[in-house]
Amino acid sequence: MKLTVNGEVRDISAVTLAELMSELEYEGNWLATAHNGVIVHRQQRSQCRLAEGDRIEVLAPMKGG
Q1: Which residues span the domain enclosing 45?
Q2: What is the pLDDT of residues 1-25, one digit of tens each?
Q3: Are 56 and 48 in contact (CB under 8 A)?
């Protein structure tokens, strides 16, 4: 299915957000995720089902100042 991940349209075989993270090799407990603009906590990613056209954001904190 086609999803928009961090602004880029991609063909994805994953059906849950947890599977997507694994498929795209995103690792780390510090990563934040959003599904169609709604924050999804790490513990809920395996229950978050994906559908054609969904928008996913994967964010990592950055140092700055």
Answers
A1: 2-59
A2: 999 999 999 999 999 999 999 999 9
A3: no
